[in-house]
Amino acid sequence: MNPATPPTVSPVGSHVTKSEAETEQLAAAFARILNPGSWVGLIGALGSGKSVFARAVGRAWGVEVAMPSPTYTLMNCLAGRCPIYHMDLYRIESADELDFAGLTPYFSSSGICLVEWAEKAHSLWPAMGWTVTFDQLDENSRRIEIASLRESH
Ligand SMILES: Nc1ncnc2c1ncn2[C@@H]1O[C@H](COP(=O)(O)OP(=O)(O)OP(=O)(O)O)[C@@H](O)[C@H]1O
Ligand SMILES: [Mg+2]
Questions:
Q1: Whether the CB of 38 sits within 6 Å of ligand 1
Q2: Separation between Cα atoms, residue 8 and residue 14, nearest integer Å
Q3: Residue 72 — very low, low, confident or very high, per pLDDT cuts 50/70/90?
Q4: 59 inside domain
Q5: Would 33 be classed as within a structural domain?
Q6: How far is the CA of 20 from the centre of ligand 2 (A)?
Q7: Residue 1 CA, ligand 1 centroid: distance in Å
C-alpha cells in the first residue's frame, strides 16, 4: 500500500457530526464510494443538513460553482466530473408529480442523482443506491446514517 494513502474507513453506517464542517468531511468520504450513475436519497427534517451534505458531495465530484437550493426549481443540473443532478422534492405531494415534471428519468441516469426529501417519491426509488438519513440531535449535532438500498430490500 502506498504509505501516503490514508486508511479508508467505510462511510456506511451511523455517524454523529458536531459541526457543518464535520458533515462536509463525512460527505467527502461518502463521495469516494459513488460512481457516475449512483442514486442518493437524502432524508431528514428541515434544516437537518441534507443540502450541506449534497453540496459537499458535489464539490468532491468537481462542481466548482455554488449549488443553489433546488427547492423551487425541483432540480438543478451541475457540471462536475459527471453530471450532478441535485433535486429537492419538498414541494411535491406524490411520485406522480415527479413523473409529470419529467424528472423520473434522472433517477436512473448516468450522472449522480442527489435527492433531498426522497421519501416523497418512494415508489420510484431505484433498486440500487444509497440513503443518507439525518437526525438533528441539537443545534450543531446531527446523527447521519448511511445505508445501501440493496441491504434494505
Ligand atoms: N452538524 C451539522 N451538520 C450539518 N449542518 C449543520 C450542523 N450543525 C449545524 N448545521 C446547520 O444546519 C443547517 C442545515 O441546513 P441545510 O440547508 O443543509 O438543511 P436541509 O436538511 O437541506 O433543509 P431543507 O429541508 O430546508 O432543504 C445549516 O444552517 C448548517 O450550518
Ligand atoms: Mg435542503
A1: no
A2: 16
A3: confident
A4: yes
A5: yes
A6: 13
A7: 37
Band (71; pLDDT cuts 50, 70, 90)? confident
The CATH number for 80's domain is: 3.40.50.300
Query: Between residues 71 and 147, which one has the greater pLDDT?
Result: 147
Domain that holds residue 35: 25-106
Q: How many domains does the chain have?
A: 1
Q: Determine, yes or no, domain membership for 16.
A: no
Closest ligand 1 atom to 88 CA:
27
Q: Which of 36, 24, 41, 39 is nearest to 80 (CA)?
A: 36
Burial of 17 (0-12, 13-18, 19+ CB in 10 A): buried
Query: The cell 453506517 sits on which residue?
Result: 13
How far is Cα 56 from Cα 29, in angstroms, rounded to an integer?
Answer: 10
Q: Rounded mean pLDDT of 53-73?
A: 95
- In a domain, residue 79? The reply is yes
- 49 CA from centroid of ligand 2 (Å): 7
